[in-house]
Specification:
Elements (H helix, E strand, L loop, with lengths): L1 E3 L6 E6 L5 H14 L4 E6 L2 H14 L6 E9 L2 E3 L9 E2 H7 L4 E7 L6 H5 L6 E8 L10 H8 L10 H8 L1 H4 L2 E5 L3 E2 L2
Parallel strand pairs: 2-3, 2-4, 4-7, 7-8
Antiparallel strand pairs: 1-3, 4-5, 5-6, 8-9, 9-10
Helix pairs in contact: 2-3
Length: 190
């Protein structure tokens, strides 16, 4: 496990992986930490219980109505995994919602088929209070989204939440076609 930044940071990046690319993603996250002057919480986990515990601790310490959370993990219909095909590392969508009981304003779930969470959380949005960005295909969705998340949380320049779909389509058009952006109550925005 690795971590950096204050537990009370309104923006957080959690990586739940143990299959190789997590170190490259962690390096990109550390760069975001530096460019945002340490105003994010970042954690890298490869064990289920410490991951869920850390999410709970962060969620309780933040103001949920102004929180941004990026999670990178393998995912699918049943939930998220730190390693594909290893059931004991699975975090069900219900478990993730329980860990984020206070909710998050903006949730980015990056991994294979993370949009599957909508089926489990419908119609009440699970932990999402305003917007959810998720993927709808298998692929490499960790590293390329880190700089986009940095753009989402950056104070300079400030990006309004309704601008993110167009920013995503402009900066990463190939990735954008494999993502879905939902508003609370899971009305798909694009």
């Amino acid at each position: 496990m690795k971590r950096t930044g204050a537990l009370t940071s309104q923006a957080a990046i959690f990586i739940y992986r143990d299959d190789g690319p997590e170190e490259k993603i962690w390096k990109a996250v550390r760069n975001v930490y530096k460019t945002e002057n340490g105003l994010i919480r970042a954690e890298l986990h490869n064990k289920k219980l410490p991951f869920l515990s850390a999410l709970k601790k962060w969620n309780v310490k933040t103001e949920s109505m102004n929180s941004f959370l990026y999670i990178n993990a393998h995912a699918g219909k049943l939930g998220m995994n730190c390693k594909p095909g290893v059931p004991e590392t699975r975090v069900s969508w219900h478990e993730l919602a329980e860990a984020l009981r206070c909710g998050v304003q903006y949730l980015w779930l990056m991994g294979c088929n993370t949009a599957e969470c909508v089926k489990s959380w419908y119609p009440l949005c699970g932990p999402v209070r305003k917007r959810l960005l998720a993927t709808n295909k298998k692929g490499v969705f960790g590293l390329p989204f880190v700089p986009l998340f940095a753009r989402e949380i950056s104070q300079d320049p400030i990006a309004f939440d309704d601008e993110m779909p167009s920013i995503l389509r402009k900066q990463e058009p190939n990735l954008a076609r494999f993502t879905r952006y939902f508003e609370c109550r899971f009305r798909e925005l694009y």
